[in-house]
Amino acid sequence: MAAQKRDYYEVLGVARESTVEEIEVAYRKLARKYHPDRNIGDPHAEATFKECTEAHEVLTRAELRERYDRYGHEGLQGGGGGQGGFADIMNDLFGAFMGGGQQQRRRGPQRGGDLRMALDITLLEAAQGVKKEVKVRRFETCLECTGTGSKTNKRNQCPRCKGRGEFVQRQGFFELRQACPTCAGSGTVIADPCTNCKGQGRVQGERTVSISVPPGADTGLRLFVGGEGDVGEPGGQRGDLELVVRVADHKLFQRDGVDLFIEEWPITFSQAALGTTLEIPTLTGRTKVTVPAGTQTGTEFRARGEGVPELKISRQGTPIENTRKGDLRVTVVVETPAHLTKRQEELLRALAETEHKEVSPRRKGFFEKVRDLFTTPETDAAR
């Protein structure tokens, strides 16, 4: 029995009266969390991502949302959005005509499957580029039978299709040809299967593959290595290997494209008031940032060229060298001293007394606004 579908509004965590914009925001947040590129090999995350995408497709299309709100999931059945719908029937029909999917008649060597893996790197490796060694689990040719799947390479006629390799089914005016599932369309079966590979001609193995990650790589970057996937059967060429880059979070730096951020760099009250020069760490060393007198909390400073290189990809999918780099952006926070020495307290009290006499323009402007707020025409006349 099929699992009960969850309510689409519950899937996205939004109210039924939510606007399309609110639904879009909720979906983007969930899509980033559960996207397959960030959760390689996690079936739960993949299923959740598909569920969120399905909910998003329905709730952002007025006609489908109205139908769903009125009839629930039942209202989407048979209309192109559910099982048994007209779109499913046409896909099956055209798949049969074009020889696609499981109905394709397979004869001769078949290309091996493509593999997809996550490649985890640090932020420094992403910025500078790195060469990685990756262990890949894949199908290898069975050495016992050299890929034939048979001890003596002897084959018999397939008992199910009688050597034809296919079945013919007639539905009205249409004639559908389907590959025999027993012999996979070859018309013959192995007479004496190899005990090592159970007649498959392939066994699971492991190989170490080298891959170069270009400078400027970011999470989601896809790197392809041709011919490093599963071996084909019988004797078919290998598939390809796809590696999806995942850049680990850094303890100090946040990244946005080519720029790096330090969001809260603490400075003292005296540094903010009098100005100072800060020595800031970078990915590869240190740099200096000049803080002018009178700096306020939240002020951002830039260290030019201390970010991440910009990565460009050609139409052929290969990285293009680029010398442009982003910036390091540092936001300062003025710290209020929690514990003062006697001398520090005396100096601050002296400063406070001075402030009562010489009000700064910014402070004066603020209190003038407060005074005007409580001043009425009648009080002005009384003066």
Broad CATH class of the largest domain: Mainly Beta
> What is the radius of gyration?
34 Å
Stretches with pLDDT under 50, minimum 5 residues: 79-106
What is the annotated CATH architecture of the largest domain? Ribbon
Percentage of residues in DSSP E strands: 25-35%
Distance between the termini: 85 Å
Helix percent reads 25-40%
Order of helices and strands: HHHHHEHEEEEEEEEEEHEEEEEEHHH
- Give me the number of helical elements: 10
**What about the largest sheet?**
4 strands, mixed
Within the CATH hierarchy, at the fold level, what is the topology of the largest domain? Chaperone, DNAj Protein, Chain A
Classify the secondary structure makeup into a structural class: alpha+beta
**Overall domain count:** 3
CATH homologous superfamily caption of the largest domain? Heat shock protein DnaJ, cysteine-rich domain
Keywords:
alpha+beta; Helix Hairpins; Chaperone, DNAj Protein, Chain A; HSP40/DNAj peptide-binding domain; 3 domains; 4-stranded mixed beta sheet; 3-stranded mixed beta sheet; 10 helices; 17 strands; elongated
Explain how this protein is built:
The chain has about 375 residues and is an alpha+beta fold. It folds into three domains: about 80 residues, DnaJ domain (Helix Hairpins); about 130 residues, Heat shock protein DnaJ, cysteine-rich domain (Chaperone, DNAj Protein, Chain A, Ribbon), CATH 2.10.230; about 80 residues, HSP40/DNAj peptide-binding domain, CATH 2.60.260. About 30% of the residues lie in helices and about 25% in strands. It is built from ten helices and 17 strands. The protein has a four-stranded mixed sheet with strand order 10-11-17-14. Strands 1-9-8 form a three-stranded mixed sheet. Helix 2 runs antiparallel to helix 3. The chain is elongated and about 105 Å long.
